[in-house]
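Our consortium's second objective concerns turning raw sequence data into structural hypotheses that experimental partners can test. To show how far this objective has progressed, the report includes one record in full. It was chosen at random from the queue rather than selected for favorable results. The single chain below, 184 residues long, was entered without modification.
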Amino acid sequence: MTEEIIIAGFGGQGVLSMGKILAYSGVMQDMEVSWMPSYGPEMRGGTANVTVILSSERISSPIINQYDTAIILNQQSMDKFESMVKPGGTLLYDPNGITRHPERKDINIYKVEASMEASNMGLTKIFNMIVLGSFIKIKPIVQIENVIKGLKKSLPERYHHMIPDNEDAIRKGMEVSVPVQLLS
């Protein structure tokens, strides 16, 4: 089993954090893991993405051109990465700020209103954890217990008081993603 994932959005949306939590989760499940971030010099507000590979076999290279799953959080990332999802793969996106929704017919598409749900919960900073929860519901590659451990490992100690809110957001994300298009 190998899952090649791209998570892409603006800097400050928690893109790299989501990738790091997935990577830690994979390590805790004795998987081979690759975590490769990419972001512009502008950081917050600029584009950012991270490639995560989780595998039961050795990973030959962290550089890939097609993904099993794309998690998309802004229009620029949709424009760049929608075409790079393998046929039969999965695209998960938050529609907030998306002007052109995914159009492919050969992939599974899911929408999660993570921005809206985070706002409803009164915690906009947990937006990325809602998205992560949706992903692990759609693709249960890593166990929720390991995702929570990965969260605790990757979150700086000064933010550990937010762990319960982040756990709630992950669980909320597992409830709210909806299929837009599923292959039959």
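The partners drew two points from this record. The chain has a mean pLDDT of 90. The chain has one domain: 2-181. Both points have been shared with the crystallography group to help prioritize constructs.
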